[in-house]
Each structure stands twice: as structure tokens, then as C-alpha cells.
């Protein structure tokens, strides 16, 4: 079966701009302020894509973040746009970094793209310094029982990987993270979806476009609606390992 990658599809950026995350950089900025990141801190952007967060952190706060992403195509774009930064090809499940080398890890609309979320969270815990921060913003299902149906669609998109928020929280806490902030930001997701519909006519049509027609976008959207997608921001501090 052909597996499409909506994450890499240029048409998404052509329609929506450089970043598709709900709220733009507003939650990125909140993470910087809440965690009190400074120019002295080593910060990682997990699933950096075209490097938008890396660029924002440097331009607004002079923080030179490192970006990691599995896509050679997207990293090539990031390196051209932000030549001052380090971009490394790799996956969240197997990060090529030493233990306890980062003060902060951002995962903005990318944790839901990971093949193994639990393994990725373990890696985040490993590379963070004691007292370091994991800042995640992502989509979740307010009806997680319906998410299983999304697995029938073979394509790469955060909306296919909606989190069960309770299970995600339990996973982080079991590893030794202390969750300091966990808030619903679904209004930002709603605003983004309204913009998509305005630009593209319907969400079903949008999915057909961004997956190059390899799925039935209208059927996918119908199931997605049953899942009741929401959006959250979370800031978790690394404590003692419980493994």
C-alpha cells in the first residue's frame, strides 16, 4: 500500500504559509517565557521540518537551537533558510545525542508524527538535563476510542496520530517527568481549520490535495470528526528517572 507523507507536501505550505501549527509561534513564545530559556541554553527542536522554530528562537531570542528531522528534503530547505543553525537527520526514537545535553526540547505538532511515541518520550528524557524542559504542543482526541479507525489510512500527518491525552500524561509521569502545564488550546486549532476550509473549500478536499489523492479525504475527515480533535500545550520538567 502506498504511504503518503502530508508532512512533506509542498502544497500545504503553499496554501497555509511556512508553519501549519495552530496559533503560529504564540505557544512557542509561551514555552520560552515559562521555561525561562536563554542564549546560554542548549535547545533541541524535535521534528524541525523546514526549521521554522529554530529560526524563530534565534531571531527573537538569540537561542541557537539544534534541529532534528528524518526528512532529507525538509532538512535541505531548513539548511538553506537558516545556515547559522545545525540540522541533523534522525528520528525521535533514536536521537544521535549524548545523555543530558539539552536544557530544553520542543516538539511542536511533531510528537503525533512519531512511529513510537513512548520510545520518543524516553529519548527526550534521556537527552534532557536534570531539571530540563520538554515543551510539546500537539493534537489530541477528545474521543480517543475512535482513533483506532484512523490507523486504516496509510499516510503521514499529525491528524492521523491524535493523542490520547490521559495516556500520554501517564506515560510522561511514569518516566519521571513532572507536568507543570497542561492546557487545552483547541480554539487555536479551530481557527486554523476555519482558515483551511476558507482557502480550500472543505477539509475533505484539503486532505485529498495534501495526500496527492492516495486516500479518500472525505472519508478520513468523517472519521476524524468522530474523534473530536483538540489541541494542547504541555510543559514538563525532567525529574528523577523511574525506570
TrEMBL record:
Pfam families: Methyltransf_11 (PF08241). Keywords: Methyltransferase, Transferase. The keyword Chaperone does not apply. GO terms for molecular function: S-adenosylmethionine-dependent methyltransferase activity. It comes from the Bacteria. InterPro entries: Erg6_SMT_methyltransf, Methyltransf_11, SAM-dependent_MTases_sf. Residues 44-135 form the Methyltransferase type domain. One of its GO terms (biological process) is methylation. This is Methyltransferase type 11.
Amino acid at each position: 500500500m502506498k504511504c503518503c507523507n502530508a508532512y512533506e507536501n509542498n502544497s500545504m505550505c503553499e496554501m497555509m504559509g511556512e508553519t501549519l501549527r495552530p496559533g503560529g509561534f504564540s505557544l512557542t513564545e509561551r514555552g520560552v517565557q515559562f521555561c525561562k530559556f536563554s542564549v546560554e541554553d542548549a535547545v533541541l527542536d524535535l521534528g524541525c521540518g523546514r526549521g521554522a522554530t529554530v529560526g524563530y528562537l534565534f531571531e527573537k531570542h538569540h537561542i541557537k537551537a539544534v534541529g532534528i528531522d528524518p526528512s532529507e528534503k525538509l532538512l535541505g530547505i531548513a539548511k538553506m533558510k537558516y545556515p547559522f543553525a545545525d540540522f541533523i537527520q534522525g528520528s525521535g526514537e533514536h536521537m544521535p545525542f549524548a545523555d543530558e545535553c539539552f536544557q530544553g526540547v520542543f516538539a511542536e505538532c511533531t510528537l503525533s508524527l512519531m512511529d513510537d511515541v513512548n520510545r520518543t518520550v524516553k529519548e527526550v528524557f534521556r537527552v534532557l538535563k536534570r531539571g530540563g524542559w520538554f515543551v510539546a504542543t500537539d493534537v489530541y482526541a477528545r474521543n480517543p476510542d475512535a482513533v483506532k479507525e484512523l490507523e486504516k489510512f496509510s499516510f503521514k500527518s499529525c491528524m492521523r496520530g491524535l493523542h490520547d491525552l490521559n495516556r500520554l500524561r501517564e506515560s510522561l509521569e511514569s518516566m519521571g517527568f513532572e507536568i507543570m502545564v497542561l492546557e487545552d488550546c483547541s480554539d487555536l486549532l479551530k481557527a486554523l481549520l476555519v482558515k483551511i476550509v476558507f482557502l480550500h473549500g472543505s477539509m475533505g478536499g484539503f486532505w485529498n490535495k495534501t495526500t496527492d489523492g492516495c486516500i479518500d479525504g472525505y472519508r478520513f475527515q468523517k472519521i476524524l470528526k468522530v474523534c473530536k480533535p483538540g489541541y494542547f500545550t504541555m510543559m514538563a520538567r525532567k525529574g528523577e528517572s523511574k525506570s
